[in-house]
Amino acid sequence: MAMVTQIAMITTERVIQVPSQAPNNVNKEGNSTPTPMELKPLAAEAQQQAAGNIGRVLDLSLPISVELGRTTMLIKDILNLVPGSVVELDRIAGEPVDILANGKLIAKGEVVVIDENFGVRIVDIVEPGERVAGDD
Predict the structure, then answer these.
(1) DSSP per-residue string spanning 49-71
(2) What residues pair up with 121 in beta bridges, in sequence order?
(3) In the prediction, which pLDDT does 82 show?
(4) Which of 11, 61, 88, 123 has its CA 20 to 30 Å from the CA of residue 68?
(5) What is the CATH number of the domain that holds 67?
(6) What is the pTM of this model?
(7) Count of structural domains within the chain
């Protein structure tokens, strides 16, 4: 005797009722669409207040570092470093060095000697738009 299998398919419909007072950005399916928004410029008073808030951070200190150059080395070569070893960098002697504030490039400079200490003379300020986010 052959066995007959019957499959019953049930379909359902989802009825969405949109109230007559629905916002303009809701369509008949109940989905909302973005509504453009116009923002007014800040009033002069609000701009002055925002500028005054910068005073709250002016007394904070950031670490400043100067980078002569970079290189990549194999771990085995790093482990073989001894006093007197020379590590070649990616910069030419006399080329400007990078000045970093909190790890972010802010300026270029040249190395100088002040009494018996090293110093850096600023030769170029890096504009915020030119700074690379990933510069660490």
Answers:
(1) HHHHHGGGTTT----EEEE----
(2) 110
(3) 96
(4) 61
(5) 2.30.330.10
(6) 0.55
(7) 1
Whether residue 81 contacts residue 113, with contact meaning beta carbons closer than 8 Å, is answered with: no
CA distance 99 to 104: 8
pLDDT value for 133: 54
The reply to whether 29 falls in a domain is no
- Residue 124 domain boundaries: 62-130
Residue 18 lies in a domain: no
Successive 10-residue mean pLDDT values, the chain, 136 residues = 55 62 63 76 70 80 94 96 95 93 94 93 90 56
d(CA 136, CA 104): 6
116, two tokens: 């018996």
Residues near 62 by beta carbon (within 8 Å), at least 6 away in sequence = 101, 102
